[in-house]
Design a protein that fits this description.
The protein has about 575 residues and is an alpha+beta fold. The chain is built from 18 helices and 19 strands.
């Protein structure tokens, strides 16, 4: 019996590439000793036995070589002129002056390219056509948009401000209103201009309302078309009457390639009219020739028969809600009858209108609404103006903190001079604590002026169950007295409690500068004033000037009626402060 053949094959090595199976060289750089490059010379310092430059000096000509200098001929014979390329039209490589460099870009003298730092065509000649015009949005329609906060929500906000006594930034309150659409209503109002011919104010863009569904439209024709289409069954009854089919043999019909509607044979007398009507109703934004190219010709007998049956009857329209019924033969007669009989009582022109929240608006009004709401959410000036008017009618006051941010509160800042006013010791301590501790709040004020007593240890059997909130500690008499005095100071404007809870006292107004008397003009005779009355007359003149200036500054503004009120309150004399409204008296 023969012995089994042993085959010693390493399959891993058999399927490896040649470079992986070759033996590795332990030192492949052993035959190099570092002197192999001396024969070529150092390119930067010594250049071996090369001859010196012919003219000497750095950058001078050299005896032939790369670059085509005025040296001898290059090896390999004369190659002739070099063909032109990107570097400009070539010439002989050796000898002679190269001449001026051809005009071109920084990288060479390619013909037809010019460097224009001011922009323009990128190539000489006609260029690459006109540039794309800058995108500019379409101008908004000349209609004024009004935003009115919901009255119930504004009344609730006013009650909260009165109860809390805090001062809230007006624009933050307006931003709170703009967060949800159900907190405000949108209205539209026409803009008017003076007509020189009739000497009357006319609307730049009139507004029309359909009384049937309270929808707003920009033209009487659009409103009438909407009323007829949306409420057609209210005014007219449609009847389908048979008629004779069109005479002739029809083998093909035209069909709209986008809607599939049958238009009829191209040689049918009503084909062009129906084609243009469908284009005007459904595809008015598309070019008519382009739409016409989408129409396809169908030769299917079933489709031809379907068109023949569709034109084998006609529609009659009977007018309803009229003293005498009238039968109309076409939609043109229906539109004329509707415009004459029903339109005057249904379509009304208005100067201002507030549509429903879910009402459909024309495209131009939708664009105006979207753009205006985006601006209002970033800077709610309309809502802030409406809020200021409503808050002012409810007895709230407005002031500017540091002459920048408008706040609404129960009272405007009113400086209290505790040195010359009769107030209680608790009131003085409150004022001093707020002035000393900048950024303090109500809790720290009470704990500082009337600390809470240490809590008594509760018996073990009366311990609260786990998870139950501890009962609030009742206020002491001293703490209640501090809170009562603080409440009076806030509602009198002597202390301002902001929305963050920070307390701040009303600042002392800056003294008013004494006006310099004007020198009398020559020739003007001044009436002689009695002695002792000059000072009184001067003081009355100053007071009149201050009142006029105050009224001018407190006049309502178009953008922000209450926000432009003066930040500094009028100074209070000690006599007026001696008897404030129900002030806390010293015990």
């Amino acid at each position: 019996m023969s012995e089994p053949l042993e085959i010693n094959l390493d399959l891993d090595k058999l399927f490896q590439p040649a470079w992986a199976t070759s033996p590795s060289d332990p030192n492949k750089y052993a035959r190099y000793d570092g002197t192999e490059g001396e024969s070529r010379g150092d390119r930067r310092f010594g250049r071996g036995d090369r001859p010196p430059r012919r003219d000497g000096g750095f950058g001078g000509p050299r005896p032939g070589g790369f670059g085509g200098g005025p040296g001898g001929p290059r090896s390999g014979g004369d190659r002739g002129p070099r063909p032109g390329g990107f570097g400009g039209p070539g010439g002989p490589r050796s000898g002679g002056d190269r001449g001026p460099r051809p005009q071109g870009g920084p990288g060479g003298g390619a013909p037809g390219i010019a460097w224009d730092p001011k922009g323009g065509p990128r190539r000489d000649g006609p260029g690459r056509g006109p540039r794309r015009p800058d995108f500019r949005p379409e101008p908004l329609i000349p209609v004024e948009l009004t935003l009115t906060p919901e009255q119930g929500g504004v009344s609730s906000l006013a009650r909260q401000i009165k109860l809390s006594g805090r001062a809230y930034p007006l624009f933050e309150v307006a931003t709170l209103v703009m967060q949800k659409p159900d907190r405000y209503t949108v209205g539209f109002k026409v803009m008017k201009r003076r007509d020189e011919a009739t000497k009357k104010d006319v609307a730049v863009q009139p507004l029309f309302v359909c009384n049937l569904d309270d929808t707003l439209w920009l033209s009487e024709a659009a409103a009438s078309e909407h009323a007829l289409k949306a409420h057609f069954d209210t005014f007219y009854q449609t009847q389908k009457m048979p008629c004779d089919p069109p005479k002739g043999v029809w083998t093909l019909v035209a069909q709209c390639g986008m809607t599939g509607e049958l238009l009829g044979p191209p040689n049918f007398h009503g084909y062009q009219e129906k084609l243009r009507k469908l284009h005007a109703d459904r595809f008015s934004r598309m070019n008519f020739d382009m739409y016409k190219s989408r129409v396809k010709i169908v030769k299917d007998e079933a489709i031809v028969k379907q068109w023949t049956e569709s034109v084998s009857f006609r529609f009659e329209y009977t007018a309803l809600n009229v003293p005498e019924p009238k039968v109309l033969q076409s939609m043109d007669e229906v539109r004329a009858h509707f415009a004459e009989v029903h339109q005057p009582s249904i379509i009304k022109q208005v100067d201002a209108f507030t549509p429903k929240a879910d009402a459909k608006l024309p495209a131009a009004l939708q664009t105006l609404l979207r753009v205006s709401l985006d601006k209002e959410k970033r800077f709610p000036i309309r809502i802030a103006t409406a809020l200021s008017n409503t808050f002012a009618s409810m007895g709230l006051q407005f002031f500017k903190r540091d002459k920048t941010v408008v706040h609404v509160a129960v009272a405007r800042p009113h400086y209290l001079d505790i040195e010359n006013s009769v107030v209680s010791e608790t009131t003085k301590k409150i004022i001093e604590h707020i002035n000393t501790n900048v950024g303090t709040n109500r809790k720290r004020l009470v704990e500082t002026l009337a600390p809470s007593p240490a809590p008594a240890e509760a018996p073990a059997d009366a311990a609260a169950a786990p998870g139950t909130a501890p009962a609030p500690t009742p206020l002491t008499a001293e703490q209640q007295s501090v809170l009562n005095d603080l409440h009076w100071l806030i509602h009198q404007g002597h202390v301002i409690e902001f929305a963050s809870g920070m307390l701040e006292t009303a600042k002392k107004p800056a003294p008013r500068p004494t006006p310099t008397p004007k020198a009398p003009k020559k020739g003007d005779k001044q009436p002689a004033a009695p002695e002792g009355a000059s000072a009184e007359a001067a003081s009355e003149a100053v007071a009149a000037t201050d009142v006029a200036a105050s009224l001018a500054q407190e006049a309502p503004q178009a953008a922000d009626q209450a926000a432009e009120a003066e930040a500094q309150p009028e100074p209070v004399t000690p006599a007026a402060e001696a008897a404030p409204e129900n002030p806390p008296q010293a015990g």
